[in-house]
Design goal:
The chain is an alpha/beta fold. It has helices at 16-27, 35-47, 55-64, 96-105, 109-123, 135-139, 153-166, 173-189, 211-222, and strands at 5-9, 30-33, 67-70, 81-84, 87-88, 128-132, 145-150, 202-205. Helix content is 48%, strand content 15%. The radius of gyration is 17 Å and the shape is globular. The structure holds 2'-deoxycytidine-5'-monophosphate.
Length: 223
């Protein structure tokens, strides 16, 4: 029997999404990328002109907005639609302004409380692969398979760089590497639910491994 609840955590650009999507496909499970929810709240704040340092307003926003993750409505490289109050924001949440602000927003306890509650509700139904920073530790500590996927900052920056280039967007490797390091620093030192491996997580270092090799390892673990 494969595990019913799979948690995948790790730093930015470690390959969690690629692995998670593949695994969910293979098992016929729901794939939930929780980073999307933090990005959506950040995007909404920027859009509405809310100061991202205003913790109280950000918390209220996270409690009030409706974030929907739906099957893809367009064939433009997306794997799902992200909608907020019916507006399609799938690509908007990947822009550099969101990228620069999301670690600040996701450090607020009130924002985390609101989004964690939603994630837990989805996860507890089972047959789910959930990806993030705190899934095995906080969102779904009862997950029956926990993976902590890591890679060096340089390798992760290379992957982000290649992703942006493939989408035809301007990319600067040095700036990306700096952003990866800053996000690691903020994500792993915040007070609430910092990036951390659960004690019972299986560590995989993906430096020097292809996405295929990482998937094969985890597929073995599912047996
Ligand atoms: O995985 P990502 O790059 O889309 O995540 C965006 C941000 O959200 C990242 O800075 C960390 C934060 N995040 C979090 O704090 N907890 C999660 N479960 C998922 C993401």
């Amino acid at each position: 029997m494969p595990p019913k609840m799979i948690a995948i955590d790790g730093p930015a650009a470690s390959g969690k999404t690629t692995l998670g999507r593949r695994l969910a496909d293979y098992l016929g499970y729901l794939f939930v990328d929780t980073g999307v929810m933090y990005r959506a709240v950040t995007w909404a704040a920027l859009q509405r002109g809310i100061d991202i340092h205003d913790e109280a307003r950000l918390t209220a926003l996270a409690e009030e907005v409706q974030i929907d993750i739906l099957p893809p409505s367009q064939n433009d490289g997306r794997f799902y639609d992200v909608r907020m109050d019916h507006q399609d924001i799938t690509w908007e949440i990947r822009n550099p302004q969101v990228e620069a602000a999301v670690s600040i927003v996701s450090a607020y306890p009130g924002v985390r409380r609101a989004l964690t509650a939603q994630q837990r509700r989805i996860g507890l139904r089972g047959r789910v692969v959930m990806v993030g920073r705190d899934i095995g530790t906080v969102v779904l500590p009862e997950a029956d398979l926990k993976i902590y996927l890591d890679a060096s900052p340089e390798e992760r920056a290379r992957r982000r760089f290649a992703e942006l280039q493939a989408r035809g967007e301007a990319a600067d490797y040095g700036a990306i590497l700096q952003n990866v390091r800053e996000r690691d620093q903020i994500d792993s030192t915040r007070q609430v639910a910092p990036l951390q491996a659960a004690p019972d997580a299986i560590h995989i270092d993906s430096d020097g491994l292809t996405a295929e090799e990482v998937f094969e390892r985890v597929r073995e673990l599912c047996r």
